[in-house]
Amino acid sequence: MCYDLIAKQNRKEEKQMSLTNSILSLFKMTDPNITVTGVTKKRCPNGQRIHVVHANLSYQLVKCPHCGHKSLIKNGTHVSHLRLGTLSGGRYEMQLRRQRYQCQHCLKTCGAKTNLVRRNETFTHNVKHQVIVLARDMLTSKEIAKICGISPSSVQRILNANIHLAYRVKQLPPNLCFDEFRSCNHLMSFNCCDAVSHRRIVTLEDRLSKDIIDYFEARYSVQERAKVQTITIDMNAEYASFIHRLFPNAVTIIDRFHIIQLAGRALDNVRTRIIRTFQDKHSRIYRILKSQWRLFHLAEEKINDTKLIYLRGINEYMTQQNAIDLALDEFPEFKTVYQTYQGILTAIHQKNATGFKNLITNYQVAGNRMDVTISTFVKNGSAVLNSCRYPYSNGPIEGLNRKIKVLKRSCFGFRNIHNFFIRISLIHE
């Protein structure tokens, strides 16, 4: 009879231990002093269902943490309500009954401690980790709060407490990219990244030259800034005005995409000006210039001159080269601008700095928008030609800015720029 009672007690303890291990492993808890006693359900006044895990925390404490004497006795328990991570939706809590102790020497009390939470906090580390992981997936604070069973303000507090904006990177990379993006309240912010590793270096609240200069001069010595070799920028003249001051040995590179974009806009300006002069809106040339504008932006090697295709808008079968020739033969001015655009496109694609230089040097003024474009290239001559001499571009930072725009759109915008920058640092890790 005695053996049966002992076996029954052992089976009960094994079952309790199995329940404890299963629940603790589900929530990734590693504290061996916690024992789960059961799981219940209850409803909040708002109708939300809460799963409550009942557990005890107790261990043998020998010395008093206040006076150091070995005179501790058990002195009741204290119930703590901890917020756990979610498993399959809903809200999970732990009702943890902590053992209290009293010192008979100094009469002070203390309690059992656990590594699940910090002192005087209710959110476990598991909840905080879950919030940060969901924030990296560009979810809104309300969506994260709904998944984790907490409030949106608690989500932001967790992010602010656990994510810190870096004062500076340890070492400036030799190749940098500069660009800007629209952040909060119609403000344009500055962004900088490594042109090779695509790692974000810094994001500033505005793009004012004064603030950019103050940031780099305050955080990096002259020797550190002198190691920067190249700076890739767009057509922003403000950047070019202070780059040599901050980075005395750096070479300025105008991004190739912005060079082609500026020349393409000049081509479109002349094309649309010609379109406005047409009286007959149904003529073939008008329809070519109006509907097949993409053909004029193609590189010469990509234009099909052998296969007949049906061109919508013209409603005829012809080659792409034939359609282009019909428009160019009709308007010599547009033909000159088109040839200049193709020369720029070819020089950029072939990385031919000499050919690019000859093109902008020998350009003849024609009294159209292309004149302004060529004069801009001449004004920024060395920086424009460096786009053909170096392999770097603003592609990496444009990709980072694209992620920022997706974050803004998915979160329906931000009002607090500090909270916005915390989310930016998360998606760029």
UniProtKB/TrEMBL annotation:
Residues in Transposase IS204/IS1001/IS1096/IS1165 helix-turn-helix domain copies: 113-160
Pfam families assigned: DDE_Tnp_ISL3, HTH_Tnp_ISL3
Transposase IS204/IS1001/IS1096/IS1165 DDE domain span: 176-424
NCBIfam families: transpos_ISL3
Protein name: ISL3 family transposase
Organism of provenance: Pediococcus inopinatus
